[in-house]
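FAQ: What does a multi-protein file look like?

Like this. Sequence, then tokens, then the next protein.
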Amino acid sequence: MGSRSNWDPANQGEIMATQTINSFRSITLMALSLLCSSVALADEQEDMQNRLNEMVMSQPFNVADNAKLEAYIEEATKQGTPPVSTPSKYWRKGYTCADLRRYSWNDYRDCSYFHRYNGYYWPY
């Protein structure tokens, strides 16, 4: 209880002012830290997007895919091979064969051949 004897009510205002200033400093430092980290995060995301764009644009658009598809369909038609009748696992309502290209070349090819052979798309 010896600490109570050193307590001076006259210093209470000074102590509160010091605590308020310290709290303000802490909040200001946290806000600045948060601002800096969010700016760094935005810069990092922009850099990642730029790298992704470079990767995509560095790959040529492959027109040969259409020639390869046409050759496959022509050969399968000549041989009388029936198309795959089971839809791809990625097949969704409202899709066309072009929507399957992002998932699998084989699914795109099979869908295209089915569509050309039957005149309609896979059922849902």
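And here is the next protein:
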Amino acid sequence: MDNQGFISVDFLFSLFIILIVATGLLVYSQNTMNSSLNIETNFNHRLILDNVANTISEVDSNGPFYSKYLKLPVTGKNYVLTLENNKLTIEYDNKKGEQYVPFIDSYSSYKLYPGRIYTIEKTHEGKILIT
């Protein structure tokens, strides 16, 4: 036998299978990480929506002349909260979340932006104002 090395067909086939499995695992782990990041972003924006709706409900339940300050958090994604026709809507990245808010006058419409501080108050007439 000579001293030159050789590679068998079995070794090449095994190496090819190992590379295919490793590539598949990398693609799967990347998709799993992207999915979990999307879930986290959706959850954070849903929490913001729930927090605003709960604050409005709290102001309404405490009676006239009660007010509360609300600061909307700044997230990595830009979002806009819209309040109109008794519906609170958050929009970000071509996604939309909605929640029904029964305490707002159906003729009022508000847009709320991240990083700003808003005052939510109930007037003596029983209307909720956001300034």
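Q: Is there any per-entry metadata?
A: Some entries carry free-text notes. For the entry above: Residues 9-130 form one domain.
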